[in-house]
Specification:
This protein has about 450 residues and is an alpha/beta fold. Helix content is about 45%, strand content about 15%. The chain folds into 4 domains: about 5-135, 3-Layer(aba) Sandwich (Rossmann fold), CATH 3.40.50.2300; about 165-315, P-loop containing nucleotide triphosphate hydrolases (Rossmann fold); about 320-395, Orthogonal Bundle (Helicase, Ruva Protein, domain 3); about 400-450, Arc Repressor Mutant, subunit A. Helix 14 (about 330-340) packs across helix 16 (about 365-380). It is globular, with a radius of gyration of 28 Å.
Length: about 450
């Protein structure tokens, strides 16, 4: 369906939102109807046929469920199951908005939105509804990394694939969390491939590896003569990603000074090259990743909270491989085929002992460690079947894990011996011992039980 022929209904109890949407769409669509009270949706449907609806996630209504948007979405779907519904949400309701997609919403937008992106989203939904879409989003789906490089049949991975499918077409900033080796870059690529920017550039920057002196030049570019080695004008990564997706890897490792510079650019969507005073507008979709847990990013002595909010419109957490054991054998078979083809060898099978060895291992290096483990096994194996003896886990990870365990053991022994000495000093008086140790009696009793004292 053509946007010019569409009838749109907007339901939101914020008058400012209704006014803004009406002003934006009145010249773009056939007609637009606005409504503050969701109780009137049924009568509006009876009076008129709408092609698309924008629905707020929260209303000051008598429903008081905490998720009124979901309630009214279900009511809309009961009245017209074919109605295309875009949910209007704020940052704090992102998880609820993602849930609304499972309840039948077509898409969601985050306040404040970019006008061009909202119009583009409505246009694509209407095209898809009429079956005429030929956008980059659909062209790109055939060669998606999902199913070819980013693999998983476990429930947790299926949820991630669903989330990628739904947030990809939006222009929301995405923060990908997960341990090293879990596949964060592949998720970033999948999001780009599912977006309307899929035919444009995907630019990756390992910002955690940039020094303060290189940070601005690498991201924002420089003019000739800006510093000693600046022999020519050079565009930065923001400009290189213009119109596409910018992936900032290891975002949690940048300094507070670098964070301030990045925040300014993300707020203004304009960069200034080193050695220049000219503001250059940039249009990028931002995806960031870090191996730090969100709790560490919330520590304001290490990371600016306003930057966390800016980069974290939607969050995707990749689980470690030890928490998705259902995927281990499938991934192992995938890499066995990849490396058998690479080294011109027959694709091996896995005997029972080999499978058991893989499933019992905790993979501290995650999918990356499994990949290298299988590559080594394919190279070194003699037959057409991989045995347990062919599987040799990374000594780097084994040493690190053993060292950690030994450290924990030494600390435990130290704590146990300290407790014994203090209790002996006070002739078994638990209250006095707890006071000297600086803990409560209850905490001391827990430790006595822990160490079987």
């Amino acid at each position: 369906m053509n946007l010019k022929n569409a009838s749109v209904l907007v339901v939101d109890d914020d008058t400012d939102v209704l006014t803004a949407v009406k002003m934006l769409l009145k010249t773009e669509v056939k007609d637009i109807t606005t409504e503050k009270n969701p109780e009137n949706i049924r009568s509006l449907f009876a009076e008129k046929k709408f092609d698309l609806m924008l629905l707020d996630m929260n209303f000051n209504s008598s429903i008081n469920t905490g998720n009124e948007g979901i309630f009214w979405l279900k009511k809309v779907k009961e009245m017209n199951k074919e109605m295309a519904v875009i949910m209007i949400t704020a940052y704090g309701d992102i998880d609820l908005a993602v849930r609304s997609l499972k309840e039948g919403a077509t898409d969601f937008i985050v306040k404040p939105w970019h006008n061009e992106r909202l119009v583009s989203t409505i246009t694509e939904i209407l095209k898809k509804k009429s079956g005429s879409t030929t956008t980059a989003l659909h062209k790109a789906s055939g060669d998606s990394v999902i199913g070819t490089q980013l693999l998983g049949s476990s429930e947790v991975m299926q949820d991630i694939f669903y989330k990628i499918e739904k947030i990809g077409p939006t222009d929301a900033n995405v923060l990908i969390l997960g341990e090293n080796g879990t596949g964060k870059e592949l998720v970033a690529q999948a999001i780009h491939q599912k977006s309307v920017r899929a035919n444009n550039t995907f630019v990756k920057v390992d910002v955690g590896a940039l020094t303060d002196s290189l940070f601005e030049s690498e991201l924002f570019g420089h003019k000739k003569g800006a510093f000693t080695d600046a022999r020519e004008d050079r565009a930065g990564r923001f400009e290189a990603a213009n119109g596409g997706t910018l992936f900032l890897d290891e975002i949690g490792n940048i300094s507070l000074q670098q964070q301030a510079k990045l925040l300014t650019v993300l707020q203004n969507r304009k960069i200034i090259r080193l050695g220049s005073n000219e503001l250059v507008p940039v249009d990028i979709r931002l995806v960031c990743a870090t191996n730090l847990p969100l709790s560490e990013l919330a520590n304001e002595s290490k990371f600016r909270k306003d930057l966390v909010y800016r980069i974290n419109t939607v969050e995707i957490t990749l689980p470690p491989l030890r928490k998705r054991k259902d995927d281990i054998i499938m991934l192992a078979k995938h890499y066995a085929k990849v490396y058998a083809d690479k080294y011109i060898k027959p694709v091996p099978e896995f005997d029972a002992a080999c499978r058991e060895k893989l499933l019992l291992y905790h993979f501290p290096g995650n999918v990356r460690e499994l990949q290298y483990c299988i590559e080594r096994a394919v190279i070194m194996s003699e037959g057409e079947e991989l045995k347990a003896s062919d599987i040799i886990f990374s000594p780097l990870e084994t040493v690190r894990t053993t060292s950690d365990e030994e450290g924990d053991l030494k600390l435990s022994n130290l704590e146990k011996n300290t407790i014994l000495k203090v209790i002996e000093k006070h002739n078994g008086n638990i209250s006095r011992a707890a006071k000297e140790l600086g803990i409560t009696r209850t905490a001391l009793y827990r430790r006595l039980s822990k160490y079987e004292i």
